[in-house]
Specification:
With about 500 residues, the protein is of the alpha/beta class. About 30% of the residues lie in helices and about 15% in strands. The chain is built from 14 helices and 16 strands. Helix 6 packs parallel to helix 9.
Length: about 500
Amino acid sequence: MGLTTASLALPGYLKAAGSNTSRPNIILIMADDLGYSDIGCYGGEIRTPNLDALAAGGMRFTQFYNCAKCSPTRATLLTGQYDQAVGVQNMEHGVTFAEVLRPAGYRTIISGKWHQKPLPTTRGFDRYYGLADGCCNYWNPGIKARPGEPKPGRKRAEPRRWAIEGKAIMGYTPDDKNFYTTDAYADYAIARLEEYKNESKPFLLYLPQTAPHYPLHAWPDDIARYRGRYKIGWDKLRLQRYKRQIEMGMFDPKYEMSPRDERVPSWDSLSESDKDQADLKMAVYAAMVDRMDQALGRIFAKVKEIGKWNNTLILFLSDNGGCPETPDTTPNIPPGPVEGYRALGPAWANASNSPYRKFKSTDYEGGNHTPFIAYWPGVIKPGTITDKVGHIIDIMPTFMEIAGAEYPDRIDNRKVKPLAGKSLLPIFQGKRRKQHDVLYWQFGKAKAVRTGDWKLVKLGNADWELYNLEKDRTELYNLASQHPQKVKQLIELWDDWWKKCKE
């Protein structure tokens, strides 16, 4: 692609500080279908010591947004533009942060889930290994069984697309019987860090995880760590997480926890057999999150080993809220092994999103609100919690500012649409940043718009609902009938944005 060549001069923020520090390495980690409260530093009971350490040494956001769905979030994250404007599958009207940072002198690597049609190696990444599709069997992403193993459980008959470097593989069955996607992503990342450890150029390492997206697959030892822990049920679990969030300063006690979702039965109404099966599901899910944290710990250890930890910015987030989908194609096989294909479902997903309402694919806070951790030694004050509003459109301009990179006007004689986001660097530095005037969302029949503390939300054929997030973070009190002019104003903003996206 023909892109504007970026300046390799020292970034402005380093010049202003009179620093001799080189431009930082960047590690961007995105979990898949992780709920807001699943990890320890956001109120969860799942063991995540490596992510918790990032939070303790860095900054946690309490108002950071995604696009509420896998592929739209990825297109938006990669380009700094709303997916509706850039092209949700091909990103044809945008440029990725790898395409911007590579000309600025960065080594660009991705290990994990891509979920876009063009492979990463055609969009600015030097190296790639991982799932180039939406989801797959963790033990065996292919169709054929390995010798001595059952046929892998699958959502559909068609093969999932995997890729190694620039080669797509339809139906990837690794020979190694100990293959597990989360571990394999870490192995590849560690190998590339070792390969490039003596390079003078900084690296961008993008780690889009598959975990904890279904199917529910995990190592038996990891499952055993949680088996039986969730027999307290989702009602008590939600309350425990809510209280823990308040205790750690992540949630203001003036806000109520949302009630149990209307789709979810009370835990006490279940039979003992159903409770045991539900406990196993959540134990496997927790094990998947735990294993992801273990894998990240191995990568972090490698970064420290090669002497680059103290000059590395690390960001962690999720692509959307907890997932209520139930594609259980093997209902008679318990979650965990290669032959099974099970999902978590709405009951535990409701708990994962505590204290918020709704799920992935909706634009309520439970669907489009993500945990977001930023860690950067010497720049971010350890243990900071911020309520500044951010969005994944802000990632690209942040990378550009810290790298001293330029945004191209054109790609291959096609005009590139302008960035929608703004840099998060002032927030990282503890400075004031002018907040977004308006933020927008749309996926399928879900829509939302936020300006200031007002958020307008619509799902399906229901009426628009209006919430004041400063007074009602969990969206319990619909004020649409009390403020019809505000509703009208925000609908007009959304309609105007939608038209401009299509221009």
